[in-house]
Amino acid sequence: MKNTSGSLLPLGLLAIAVLLSGIIIKNMTYSSNGDLSAGAQNASSVNAKKVSPAGSVSHETEIMQKPVDLMYYGAGNISSDGSYSLPVVNGKESSLVSLTLTPSATVVPQGTGISMSWYVYPAGPAHDCVASTTPAITQNGVVGWNNSTFSAGGILLPGVLGGVTVPGNPGTVRTYILTCPLSTGGSVSASTVVTVSTSGGGGTFGFGINPSTVSPGGTTTISRTVSGLTLTSCSASALPPNGVPLVNNGVNGWNSTNSFPSPLTNGSTSGVSIPGVAGDVTTYKLTCQLNGGPVTFSITGGVNAGSFSIGTYFPVGTAYTTYNSIRPKGYVDPMGNNLINVWFEYQNAGGGSWISTPHVPNPNGFAAGDFIKKITGLSPTTTYNYKACGSNGMVSGCGNTYQVTTKSYVPPPPVPVDPPQL
Q1: Is the pTM above the cut of 0.70?
Q2: pLDDT at 273 > cutoff 90
Q3: Which of 90, 236, 347, 420 has its CA 20 to 30 A from that of 168?
Q4: Which residues of 106-123 are buried (b: 16+ CB within 10 A; e: fewer)?
Q5: pLDDT exceeds 80 at position 12
């Protein structure tokens, strides 16, 4: 490498130049005024400081791809170490876990099996659940629903399980129970009752809902399958979260105005609304006549919190750090169709309030990607904490906190003054 006079640079300066060339972030794009923009991949590893929630500092060396500690928001915040914190829903932290248990039928002919569905919100703190029944028959339950059903453990997510037996003579009443400890402390439990019909008959009925959770204002499809049962005079109803039906003893798309064939056949109903805000659960019912008596089938659907994930990159060298500015970088994954606003928050590491940059739409649109912001007006040789943040209007959250130190201020060299002209 040569200087402007054509002579070789000193070996020391050459080594520094080579070192810097290995840590400069490649292919980053910025707007002319330093506003938030999308950024490309990086390819260097450096030592960085990561600030723990308690405020202590640990040193790490990582590869600059996307943040390792990607934070997930919407159905709870599960960090890389498996710890869990509740999400912010409707402007406040959700402190309760809701669990509902719904059989495909509440009254069944003798010898008939059912499907059991469950809905949990937020997903994350409930884990290692135990299924049981009262009275119990095998393994503290019945075939298909006992303490070995969830033996694999792990976090409970909304789901459905078929092949659950309802043993007993006509008139037998059996309670099905699901109990889960919570990583946030305590436990949550849900139960439902299924009765063996005294009217006789045999067969199966399947009740399905897809999707089982939607964003606020979303709709779903409710399906039914009938085998070996003569179900007549069926009617639909729904119990929304607040207990007040929206229209005609139900919700939009599922109410007393729905028409079903008699006897009932396989089919589906689309455009069924799931009302409410994040965390709300609606119960959908179908009541029919079977052998001269009523039977009611039910299933649940809920509103999710519009999940997304956010992460903070740690600094790579000081190529984009000046005595009064930094350029932090974040990563956001909208997880499909959520419009995310993103921003950065920063503070003087020596103390002071967090300051937020303007909230702007994800520069990557609906796709996952990086975003960058130039933050100016900082003090020289000062360490700052910073973190990338995002919100979809229902849930807000930030990535991990990292530190960067501004450079020292170097006054510009004096402008030479030409001597008086002769």
Answers
A1: no
A2: yes
A3: 236
A4: bbbbbebbbbbbbbbbbb
A5: no
Q: For residue 253, is it within any domain?
A: yes
d(CA 412, CA 393): 46
Composition of the chain by helix, strand, coil, percent to 5: 5, 45, 55
Q: Please indicate, yes or no, if residue 16 is contained in any of the structural domains.
A: no
Count Cβ neighbours within 10 Å for each residue of 328-344 and write b for 16 or more, e otherwise: bbbbbbbbeebebbbbb
pLDDT digits (tens, 9 = 90+) for 221-249: 999 988 878 889 999 999 887 778 889 99
Rounded-to-integer distance, Cα 390 and Cα 334, Å: 10
Question: Which of 151-165, 196-210, 239-253, 287-301 has the weakest average pLDDT?
Answer: 196-210
The CA distance from 98 to 85, in Å, is 15
Does residue 368 sit in the same domain as residue 390? yes
Question: What range does the domain containing 240 cover?
Answer: 94-303
Q: What one-character-per-residue DSSP string does 7-70 give? A: PBPPHHHHHHHHHHHTTSPPS----TT---B-------EEEEEEE-TTS-EEEEEEESSS-SS-
Half-sphere exposure of 74 (CA within 13 A, CB side): 22
